[in-house]
């Protein structure tokens, strides 16, 4: 069988991504089987074979040693091929909407994983979770799990999203408060839970807890779960749910009756002197309107905030730019997890921003450090040509600068972009900003934008880190005792009708435990 045209093109153009999805691909697979030439494309870092009749993952998957994203959702796969776990660079694994029944223990070998999606399968058991230090999201919703994940020996320091909706789980382990302390979004709705252990209240960063559709024996609690927000639910758990393990940590987390308790952000030792003041969102602050129908397929997650009262020197500004580059290489994982953009707020016209996506030929901007406008299509072509010229000049196959991120756009029918209130594009993630809002050492207020294709949790993690770095760098006003201070303004993400989607920093964000940072959350005016 000759190689499929998509495979030929990917090889000829040295593409880093290949997508094979839909009815036409399914027909080829049913008639001739999957083209094994796919597994000779050892340079690709994203493979998407979805919504087909594929019933087995070939062993040759192990050949794709540079793979970082494996998307095989919506197929007929019955067995998890253990060769997947040899892909040491894999970060995103999506095998949702298949017919898997079990997952091997060797999943724990995949130390670089940031996102696991096994939702809508037939999974009855999960392996014991071990050391997965980079994992941010686990989604095992709509399966047949009878037991909660075994996290007794787990190391999941960055896990923010755990989705176990619609299983048959009967209990929540008491160790959850200790082992999953970074959780922000926890959905265990539509299971068989009767009692919630008090240790759940120890998850101090929780923002969204969904317990609906369970068989809670406490009828008052059940009514609260159906009608109230997470804060009230967590307060009730803290005060009324029995604790399985009476630890010192859980006893300290109790709320005194009648006292409104903030998350543990404010419980800072007196000697901690660096301070971050977070201003509550107000009507005169810009919103970011997200058009989910456009960005959902390419880069669906965005968070923004504003830093006020900047106090740059030329040296501090140089360090700030170097810090942003370093974060792109580290916590952003070379922009695979998320991308940071910074804008001079005073260069933006009044009004809300719009986060949407456009066909490459319809997106237009003057890129950072350039003087003429380009369409998205023209800019990518220009960057490809520059990258090729640099490669030939330096006689090596390693790209530098923004050229090395071009593969992140391969196969995309539309490009995500952020527009100001006049419709002008100010950001083209994950590639570049517009020159018109470029930061300088004279900037006094800064809009920070973080976008991601993987999760909102990834945006939060990166945003928390950049605010911490900005504070410690000293780009804000100095407090009287000589330590650094930073003033941060909340920004809301809303849908086109103005309905709230998210706000950053929320009360569960910017939690800097065991640091010399004091976070002061200002009340609503």
From TrEMBL:
Matching InterPro entries: B3/B4_tRNA-bd, Leu-rich_rpt, Leu-rich_rpt_4, Leu-rich_rpt_typical-subtyp, LRR_dom_sf, Phe-tRNA-ligase_IIc_bsu, Phe-tRNA_synthase-like_B3/B4
Q: What protein name applies here? A: Leucine-rich repeat-containing protein 47-like
Which stretches make up the B3/B4 tRNA-binding domain? 298-475
Q: What is the lineage of its organism?
A: Eukaryota, Metazoa, Ecdysozoa, Arthropoda, Hexapoda
Q: Where is this region: Disordered?
A: 243-267
Q: Origin, by domain of life?
A: Eukaryota
Q: Which UniProt keywords apply?
A: Leucine-rich repeat, Repeat
Gene behind this protein: LOC114243175
GO BP terms: namely:
phenylalanyl-tRNA aminoacylation
Cell membrane as a keyword of this entry, yes or no, is no
Care to name a GO molecular-function term for this sequence? Answer: phenylalanine-tRNA ligase activity
Please give the PROSITE patterns that the UniProt record associates with this protein. Answer: LRR
Q: Which SMART domains match?
A: B3_4, LRR_SD22, LRR_TYP
């Amino acid at each position: 069988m000759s190689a499929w045209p998509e495979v030929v093109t990917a090889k000829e153009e040295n593409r880093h991504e290949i997508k094979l999805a839909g009815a036409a691909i399914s027909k080829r697979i049913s008639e001739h089987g999957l083209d094994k030439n796919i597994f000779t494309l050892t340079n690709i870092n994203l493979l998407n074979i979805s919504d087909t009749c594929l019933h087995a993952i070939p062993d040759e998957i192990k050949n794709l040693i540079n793979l970082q994203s494996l998307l095989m959702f919506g197929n007929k796969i019955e067995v998890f091929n253990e060769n997947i776990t040899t892909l040491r660079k894999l970060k995103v694994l999506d095998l949702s909407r298949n017919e898997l029944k079990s997952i091997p223990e060797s999943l724990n070998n995949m130390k670089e994983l940031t996102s696991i999606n096994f939702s809508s399968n037939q999974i009855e058991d999960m392996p014991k979770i071990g050391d997965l230090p980079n994992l941010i999201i686990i989604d095992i919703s709509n399966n047949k799990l009878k037991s909660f994940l075994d996290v007794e020996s787990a190391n999941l320091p960055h896990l923010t999203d755990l989705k176990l909706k619609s299983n048959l789980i009967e209990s929540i382990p008491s160790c959850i408060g200790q082992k999953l302390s970074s959780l922000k979004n926890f959905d265990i709705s539509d299971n068989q839970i009767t009692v919630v252990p008090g240790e759940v209240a120890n998850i101090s960063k929780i923002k969204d807890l969904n317990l609906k559709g369970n068989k809670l024996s406490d009828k008052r609690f059940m009514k609260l779960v159906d009608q109230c927000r997470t804060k009230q639910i967590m307060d009730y758990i803290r005060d009324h749910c029995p604790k399985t393990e009476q630890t010192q940590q859980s006893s300290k987390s109790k709320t005194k009756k009648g006292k409104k308790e903030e998350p543990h952000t404010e419980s800072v030792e007196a000697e901690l002197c660096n301070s971050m003041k977070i201003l509550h969102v107000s009507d005169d602050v810009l919103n970011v309107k997200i058009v989910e129908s456009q960005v959902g397929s390419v880069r669906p997650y965005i968070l923004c905030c504003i830093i006020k009262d900047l106090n740059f020197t030329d040296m501090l500004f140089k360090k700030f730019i170097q810090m942003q580059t370093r974060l792109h290489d580290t916590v952003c994982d070379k922009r695979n997890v998320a991308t940071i953009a910074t804008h001079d707020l005073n260069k933006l016209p009044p009004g809300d921003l719009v986060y949407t996506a456009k066909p490459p030929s319809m997106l237009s901007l003057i890129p950072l450090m350039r003087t003429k406008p380009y369409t998205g299509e023209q800019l990518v072509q220009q960057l490809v040509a520059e990258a090729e010229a640099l490669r030939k000049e330096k006689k090596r196959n390693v790209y530098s600068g923004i050229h090395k991120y071009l593969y992140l756009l391969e196969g995309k029918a539309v490009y995500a972009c952020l527009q100001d209130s006049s419709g002008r594009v100010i950001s083209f993630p994950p590639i570049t900003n517009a020159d018109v809002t470029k930061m300088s050492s004279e900037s006094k207020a800064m809009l920070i934008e973080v976008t991601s294709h993987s999760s909102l949790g990834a945006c939060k993690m990166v945003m928390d880190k950049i605010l911490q770095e900005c504070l410690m760098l000293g780009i804000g006003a100095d407090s009287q005792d000589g330590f650094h201070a930073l003033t941060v303004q909340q920004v809301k993400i809303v849908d086109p009708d103005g309905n709230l989607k998210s706000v950053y920093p929320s009360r569960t964000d910017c939690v800097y435990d065991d640091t010399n940072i004091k976070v002061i959350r200002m009340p609503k005016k």
